[in-house]
């Protein structure tokens, strides 16, 4: 029996290792290719290491294609989206979880129903609203539609419902109103869920292409995915700079996740259990 269990474990770990290699291979190839000279970039058979590897592709990406500006724009828009998504979701989820009023569940299910609508189905009506409010070609056109995040409301509502009711009753006895209860009781206790939502929002905002491509048309406002898209679809694609920019686009969310992975797991598990 022990021998069979030993074999099963080896087979399981071998399968997981093989799957990890399959998923990591394109990422490793992209990172290594970003350091290769252009003439050796697509050599056959593929080689991870070739003579002349260096930082020349990154210098080209920053000087020729001004990717440093696109990176700064991505950080700015992502930070704004995280802030407003957390604020709106935390405020909207509180009455749906803590307060009692008619139609509470109906409103919650209506919010959940919007999660079933495909992204492409919302592009045209959302763009019309953004254009009507004159939010095109500025960060508001990116930030405010993203702040209406039904998943954020769902996650925080479920987490709020797990909080002990005694905390809120004690606050009411002490004379606290609902704003005070939200700010001083619910919000501090929901930090794991807020961290999970922040990571989720970060990854979505950082990699977004379609919506920023529609809203941001000024060259000085474009984000990193848009800049990479322009580099790739140009008349003479600069694959060296594309690999360098793609490497930066990969590394940033990975580092962000590594710093907050424990809060991400705790927040998601708490929200689902709620």
TrEMBL record:
One of its GO terms (cellular component) is plasma membrane. It comes from the Bacteria. The chain crosses the membrane at residues 12-32, 70-94, 106-127, 139-160, 239-260. Belongs to the binding-protein-dependent transport system permease family. It is found in: Cell membrane. GO terms for biological process: transmembrane transport. It holds the Pfam family BPD_transp_1. Its main location: membrane. Residues 71-260 form the ABC transmembrane type-1 domain. CDD domains: TM_PBP2. Keywords: Cell membrane, Membrane, Transmembrane, Transmembrane helix, Transport. This is Monosaccharide-transporting ATPase.
């Amino acid at each position: 029996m022990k021998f069979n269990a030993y074999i099963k474990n080896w087979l399981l770990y071998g399968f997981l290792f093989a799957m990890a290699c399959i998923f990591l291979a394109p990422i490793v190839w992209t990172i290594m290719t970003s350091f290769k000279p252009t003439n050796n970039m697509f050599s056959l058979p593929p080689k991870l290491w070739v003579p002349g590897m260096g930082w020349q592709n990154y210098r080209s990406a920053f000087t020729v294609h001004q990717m440093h500006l696109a990176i700064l724009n991505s950080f700015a828009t992502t930070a704004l989206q995280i802030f407003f998504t957390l604020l709106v979701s935390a405020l909207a989820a509180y009455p749906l979880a803590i307060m009692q009023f008619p139609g509470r569940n109906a409103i919650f299910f209506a919010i959940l129903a919007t999660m079933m609508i495909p992204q492409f189905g919302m592009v045209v009506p959302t763009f019309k609203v953004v254009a009507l409010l004159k939010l095109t070609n500025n960060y508001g056109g990116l930030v405010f539609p993203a702040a209406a995040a039904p998943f954020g409301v769902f996650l925080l509502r479920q987490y709020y419902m797990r909080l002990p009711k005694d905390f809120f009753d004690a606050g009411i006895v002490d004379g606290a109103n609902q704003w005070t209860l939200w700010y001083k009781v619910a919000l501090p206790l929901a930090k794991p869920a807020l961290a999970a939502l922040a990571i989720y929002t970060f990854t979505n905002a950082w990699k977004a292409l379609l919506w920023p491509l529609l809203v941001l048309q000024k060259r000085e406002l474009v984000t990193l995915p848009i800049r990479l898209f322009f580099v790739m679809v140009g008349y003479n694609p600069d694959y060296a700079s594309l690999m360098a920019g793609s490497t930066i686009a990969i590394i940033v969310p990975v580092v962000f996740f590594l710093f907050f992975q424990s809060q991400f797991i705790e927040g998601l598990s708490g929200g689902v259990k709620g």
